[in-house]
Amino acid sequence: MGPFSIEVVLGMLALGAEGKTSEQLLEFIGHKSMEELRSMSLVSRLLEQILLDRGKGGPDVRIANGVWVDEEVKPFQSACFQEVLKTVNKTKAGYIDIQNKKPTELAEIINSWVKEKTNGLIPTFVDEFSLDEVIVFANAVYFKGTWSKSFDANKSKNKDFHLISGEKVQSPS
């Protein structure tokens, strides 16, 4: 998970938090106020629109945010919070009876969303969740572009690349 994704997820959490928790989250991600956080979210959306230049041969960049909350968690059910997530962060928000789902069922929901948002490049994001989970935040960034100067294939060599699973695969470098 990159710094951009971490800031987005913590920003979504800050939007739903109140009081000292909200202040601490804002300070941690380097924002002075909720208004500043909302403006940065709008800047991210504007950047995404600028980069969506697919029709002209430009890169294909998509940013997606998701939050799934257990039905029992009341603070995140406010209409204001849901509206901010939807309009400012362009976030898919859903309420799920997490406590009565199998650990793999929630994973299937999240994996399906991630797979869709990454054009199938990340088919499995998580294997299962603990039944203690009450909220799940996710951020996916999809980028497909071409290099302005291509690599010379003759100068590339296959080397080990370590996957998160621990498996090694060969990848050109």
Automatic annotation (TrEMBL):
One Gene Ontology cellular component:
extracellular space
User: Which InterPro entries does this one have?
Assistant: Serpin_dom, Serpin_fam, Serpin_sf, Serpin_sf_1
* GO molecular function list: serine-type endopeptidase inhibitor activity
Pfam families of this UniProt entry?
Serpin (PF00079)
Residues crossing the lipid bilayer are: none
* Taxonomic superkingdom: Eukaryota
Q: Where is the Serpin domain?
A: 3-172
Q: Return the similarity comment.
A: Belongs to the serpin family.
Q: Which PANTHER family match?
A: GH10112P-RELATED (PTHR11461:SF211), SERINE PROTEASE INHIBITOR, SERPIN (PTHR11461)
Protein name, as recorded? Serpin-ZX
Q: What is the lineage of its organism?
A: Eukaryota, Viridiplantae, Streptophyta, Embryophyta, Tracheophyta
